[in-house]
Write a structure and sequence with these properties.
The complex is a heterodimer of chains A (about 250) and B (about 525).
Chain A (H helix, E strand, L loop, with lengths): L6 H18 L2 H17 L3 H25 L7 E5 L2 E4 H27 L2 H10 L4 H29 L9 H32 L18 H29 L3
Antiparallel strand pairs in A: 1-2
Chain B lengths: L11 E2 L5 E2 L5 H4 L9 E10 L7 E8 L4 E5 L6 H9 L8 E9 L2 E6 L9 H7 E4 L14 H11 L4 H15 L14 H13 L5 E5 L7 H16 L3 E6 L4 H4 L3 E6 L2 E6 L1 H4 L3 H5 L5 H4 L18 E8 L13 E8 L4 E5 L6 H8 L7 E6 L2 E2 L5 H4 L3 E4 L3 H4 L5 H6 L2 H5 L3 H11 L15 H13 L5 E5 L7 H16 L3 E5 L3 H7 L2 E6 L2 E4 L1
Parallel strand pairs in B: 5-10, 5-11, 8-9, 9-10, 15-20, 15-21, 18-19, 19-20
Antiparallel strand pairs in B: 1-2, 3-4, 3-6, 6-7, 11-12, 13-14, 13-16, 16-17, 21-22
The chains are: A mainly alpha (about 250), B alpha/beta (about 525).
Chain lengths: ~250, ~525
C-alpha cells in the first residue's frame, strides 16, 4: 500500500533517520529504528517484501562483519576464545554489533521508503522540483523494475513448465530454474529497452525544452515544515557527532 | 498540434553538428506523386546496417489528408520497416542507409546514404506523424500509473500547460472511448483497450498522419468496431491514416488507396477495386478473408469417433486472487467441456472473457477454485504443470512469452529429449518442417518476424505430440501462407488422434477448422 505522505517528505524522513542513526552511533537506537521500520512495514502491508529484501542484504553483510571484526579485531583485549591468530574478543563483537545494527537500521528505513513510496508521485514531485525527466524515469524504472522482472520471470517459467520443466521446492531445483530463466530474462529486458527507447523518443521524451506535469501531488505546508525540521535535526546530529569526535581526534 | 517546433519537423544537422532548418526543394515537391500529399516517400533502397540486402527497394508512397491508405503484403514483405521509416521510428543514418527522399507537410528531405544526409528529429517528426506498433504495449511509457497520465505523457514532454492537458486528455478519451478507463492502471487493460490507448497516445499531439501496424490484430468484434470507428473519425477530421496489414479485410477495403508490398518492393498501387483481384496481390501472402475462409460452415460434424474423451472439465470455477480488475468476480463459473480424440473445438468470446485463463487450466498452469480437470481420464490436480505438459501442449497468446532459447532449433528441442529420447532431434526437425521454418533453424527467435515467431511457438507444441493441443489465438499475425500451415498442422494433429482446443477471435477460421464452436460468456461455455 503506497504511503499517503508526499514522496519528498517520506524520502527526507528516511534519509534523515539514516543520517541521525549513523551520527548517534548507539546500537540500542539503531536496533529501535530497525524494529520501528519493520513494524511500519508490516502495518503498510509490505512487511514480508521489506524483510526478505533486508535479509538478502543484511545476512551476508552481518556474517562478513562477524568474520572480520569478531575474529580479527586488533584492539580487542577481552579474549573470549582463540584459535591461532583468530581471537574472538568482546570488543570485536561489540564493534560488529555496532556497525551491523547501524547499517541494518539504514537499510531498513530506505527499504521501507522504496517499498511504500508511490513511484508516479515521486517522479512527478522530482519533475516539479526541476530535476531532468530522465532522472525521474530512471528512479521510477528502478522502483518498478522488481515487479516487472517478477512478471517476466513468471511468463518464462510458465513457458518452460508448459514444455515439461518441473520445478520442485528444493534449492538445487530452484538453482536449475534460475539458470534456465536468467538468459531469456536479461535478453528480453534488453530487447524491450530497445523498442521502448524508440517509443519514448517518438513521444518527445528526449527532447529539450521545459516540461509540465499532469499529475499533481499535494504538498501541504505541515509536510514542508516537517521536512525542514528533519533536515535541521539531521544537520544538528552530524554537528554534534563532529564536535564530540573532534577533541579525541585532535591530539592524535 | 500542441507546440510549434521552431526548427521545423525535419531539423537537419550539418557536418559541424549544428541544427539547421531543412530547405524545401521546390522543383522536386512539384512532381506528380507527391502533389497534395501530407506525407510522401520515394525509397530507392533502404538497408539496415549489417544487412546483406535492402529491406526496401523501389517503393513510392504518398498519403493525402483525410484519406485511408492500406499497405498490404504478407509476412516479411517490409510493411513494418516502411511504416517505421515513414513515422521516424527508424531513422535513416542511425538505423540504416536510405537512398531516396521523404517529404512531410511541404518539406523535402533527400537522402543519399552518406554522412551528409539530413537527420530526423524523432520528437518533432512524431508531432506530424504518429505510429502505433503491432505490439501496442511497446508504445507505453511504463512509468505512468493511470490511463489519463499515460495519455498526457507526450503532452508533458512538449511542455503543454496543465489546463490544456486536462482538456486534451478528456477530448481524446472521448474520441477513443477511453473515458471510463481514465483512472485505470494501463497494465490491467485488455488487448482491445490497450490498442485504443496506444492509438490515443499517438494522436493526442494532433499529427496529420497516423501509421497503424496491424491495428485489428487480436481484437474482438467490439474492439474491431471501435478501432474502425476511430479511424473513420480521424480521417473525417482530416488525418491521413495509413494501415499496414496482411489481410485485405473490411478495414483495408474501405481504404482509398492500396500499395502492395512483396519482398520489400512495391509491386502495385491503386484503388482496392483495381487491385483486389490482381496477380500482384495474389502473389503476396495477403489474406483475402472472403476467399480464404470459404471452407464449409462446419467440418463434417459427425466424423469424430465416439471414443472416451481425452479432456474433461467439470464444474470448473476460477477467480483471480488479490487486487486487479478481476478480483472478486469469478472468471469461470461451473464450466464444463468434453473433447474427444481427433476433435477440434474452437472457443470464441470477447476480450477479457477468460479464454486464455480457460486454456491455462487445461495444462495446469492455473488451478481451478472448484471443479476438476481430467486429461486422458485422470485428474491433473496435484500434478505439476511440467508433468501435465507430457499430454497437453499450450500455444501462448503472445509467442514472445513462449520463446526463450538462443536458436530456433534449440527452442523446439527444449525438453524433447526427456519425452522422445533419441528421436528428439528428428521430432524437432519434423516440427520445423511442418511450419516451414527449417531454413531458420540457426536464427535467434527474437530476429524472426511476428508471424514466424507464432509458427515457431506452434512448432514447439507440435514437436511434443501431445494428446491435447490448447492453442491461444493461433491465427493472429499470420499471413495466408502461415494460415495454410496452421490449418494443415491442426488438421494433421486431429487426424493422428489429438484433441484440439483453440481460442480465437477469427470467427471465419473457427467455423472453417473446428467441429464445434463454443462461446465463453459470463464464465460458461455455450454452443454457437
Amino acid at each position: 500500500m503506497p504511503s499517503t505522505l508526499h514522496p519528498l517528505t517520506s524520502l527526507t524522513a528516511a534519509g534523515c533517520t539514516a543520517v541521525i542513526t549513523t551520527a548517534a552511533g548507539a546500537w540500542p537506537l539503531s536496533l529501535a529504528v530497525g524494529l520501528a521500520a519493520a513494524v511500519l512495514a508490516v502495518r503498510a502491508g509490505v512487511g514480508r517484501r521489506v524483510l526478505a529484501a533486508a535479509a538478502a542484504v543484511l545476512l551476508p553483510l552481518g556474517l562478513s562483519l562477524l568474520m572480520l571484526h569478531g575474529l580479527f579485531f586488533p584492539e580487542g583485549r577481552t579474549v573470549l576464545a582463540a584459535w591461532g591468530p583468530a581471537r574472538v574478543t568482546a570488543e570485536g563483537l561489540a564493534f560488529a554489533l555496532e556497525s551491523g545494527s547501524r547499517t541494518g537500521a539504514c537499510v531498513m528505513v530506505l527499504l521501507l521508503f522504496s517499498f511504500t513510496v508511490s513511484a508516479p508521485d515521486l517522479v512527478a514531485a522530482l519533475a516539479g522540483r526541476g530535476l531532468p525527466p530522465q532522472f525521474g524515469f530512471v528512479v521510477a524504472s528502478a522502483l518498478t523494475l522488481l515487479p516487472v522482472m517478477a512478471g517476466r520471470l513468471d511468463n518464462i517459467r510458465a513457458a518452460q513448465e508448459a514444455r515439461g520443466l518441473v520445478l520442485r521446492g528444493g534449492v538445487l531445483s530452484r538453482l536449475v530454474g534460475v539458470r534456465l530463466q536468467m538468459v531469456p530474462l536479461v535478453l528480453g529486458l534488453i530487447e524491450d529497452s530497445g523498442s521502448r527507447a524508440q517509443a519514448l523518443e517518438a513521444r518527445g521524451f528526449g527532447g529539450p525544452g521545459p516540461r509540465t506535469s499532469y499529475r499533481e501531488v499535494a504538498d501541504p505546508p505541515v509536510g514542508r515544515r516537517f521536512r525542514a525540521a528533519l533536515l535541521l535535526l539531521a544537520a544538528a546530529a552530524v554537528a554534534l557527532r563532529l564536535a564530540a569526535s573532534w577533541p579525541a581526534a585532535g591530539p592524535s | 498540434m500542441t507546440t510549434a517546433d521552431p526548427a521545423g519537423p525535419m531539423a537537419t544537422t550539418d557536418s559541424a553538428g549544428t541544427m539547421a532548418t531543412a530547405v524545401m526543394t521546390a522543383g522536386t515537391m512539384a512532381t506528380a506523386p507527391m502533389a497534395g500529399a501530407v506525407l510522401a516517400a520515394r525509397i530507392g533502397s533502404f538497408s539496415f546496417h549489417g544487412g546483406t540486402s535492402p529491406a526496401l527497394r523501389d517503393v513510392d508512397f504518398s498519403a493525402r489528408p483525410g484519406t485511408l491508405t492500406a499497405v498490404l503484403g504478407g509476412s516479411g514483405s517490409g510493411k513494418t520497416t516502411l511504416g517505421k521509416l515513414l513515422a521516424g521510428w527508424l531513422r535513416p543514418g542511425p538505423a540504416g542507409r536510405l537512398s531516396g527522399s521523404l517529404a512531410l507537410a511541404g518539406e523535402l528531405l533527400e537522402f543519399r546514404g552518406g554522412e551528409d544526409d539530413p537527420r530526423i528529429n524523432p520528437a518533432a517528426w512524431s508531432d506530424r506523424v504518429g505510429y502505433v506498433p503491432q505490439d501496442a504495449a511497446a508504445m507505453l511509457s511504463t512509468v505512468r500509473a493511470t490511463v489519463a497520465e499515460e495519455l498526457a505523457f507526450g503532452l508533458e514532454n512538449r511542455g503543454t500547460p496543465r489546463a490544456r492537458m486536462l482538456r486534451d486528455v478528456a477530448g481524446i478519451a472521448e474520441l477513443t472511448g477511453l473515458t471510463a478507463l481514465l483512472g485505470r492502471d494501463p497494465a490491467t487493460l485488455s488487448g482491445g483497450e490497450l490498442r485504443r490507448l496506444a492509438m490515443a497516445c499517438a494522436v493526442i499531439t494532433g499529427p496529420g498522419v497516423l501509421v497503424l501496424d496491424e491495428p485489428l490484430a487480436s481484437l474482438d468484434a467490439a474492439g474491431v468496431i471501435q478501432v474502425r470507428d476511430l479511424i473513420r473519425r480521424l480521417t473525417a477530421a482530416g488525418t491521413a491514416v495509413v494501415v499496414l496489414s496482411q489481410a485485405a479485410d473490411g478495414l483495408a477495403r474501405s481504404a482509398a488507396h492500396w500499395i502492395i508490398l512483396d519482398g520489400g518492393t512495391a509491386t502495385a498501387a491503386g484503388t482496392p477495386r483495381e487491385l483486389v483481384r490482381s496477380a500482384e496481390l495474389a502473389r503476396t501472402g495477403t489474406v483475402l478473408p472472403a476467399v480464404t475462409h470459404t471452407v464449409p460452415a462446419a467440418r463434417a460434424r459427425g466424423l469424430v469417433p465416439d471414443t472416451a474423451p481425452v479432456l474433461e472439465l467439470e464444474g470448473v470455477g476460477f477467480r483471480f486472487p488479490g487486487a486487479g480488475r478481476a478480483a472478486g468476480e469469478p472468471l469461470l463459473r461451473d464450466l464444463g467441456l468434453t473433447v474427444r480424440p481427433g476433435e477440434i473445438v474452437a472457443v470464441t468470446g470477447r476480450n477479457g472473457a477468460g479464454k486464455s485463463t480457460l486454456l491455462r487450466h487445461i495444462n495446469g498452469l492455473l488451478r481451478p477454485g472448484t471443479g476438476t480437470v481430467r486429461v486422458a481420464g485422470k485428474s491433473i490436480a496435484g500434478l505439476p504443470a511440467g508433468r501435465v505438459a507430457a499430454s497437453v501442449g499450450l500455444l501462448f497468446q503472445h509467442p514472445r512469452d513462449q520463446l526463450f532459447e538462443r536458436t530456433v532449433l534449440r527452442e523446439v528441442s527444449f525438453g524433447l529429449r526427456r519425452l522422445h529420447g533419441r528421436e528428439a532431434v528428428a521430432r524437432a526437425h519434423e516440427a520445423l518442417e511442418t511450419v516451414w521454418l527449417s531454413r531458420e533453424a540457426a536464427t535467434h527467435p527474437a530476429e524472426l518476424p511476428a508471424s514466424k515467431q507464432r509458427l515457431l511457438a506452434l512448432a514447439t507444441v507440435l514437436a511434443r505430440r501431445p494428446a491435447v493441443l490448447a492453442l491461444d489465438e493461433p491465427t493472429v499475425g499470420l499471413d495466408r501462407h502461415g494460415l495454410e500451415r496452421l490449418d494443415h498442422a491442426v488438421s494433421a494433429e486431429a487426424a493422428r488422434g489429438a484433441a484440439v482446443v483453440l481460442v480465437t477471435h477469427d470467427a471465419a477460421f473457427a467455423r472453417g477448422v473446428a467441429h464445434r464452436v463454443l462461446e465463453l460468456d459470463g464464465g460458461c461455455l455455450r454452443e454457437v
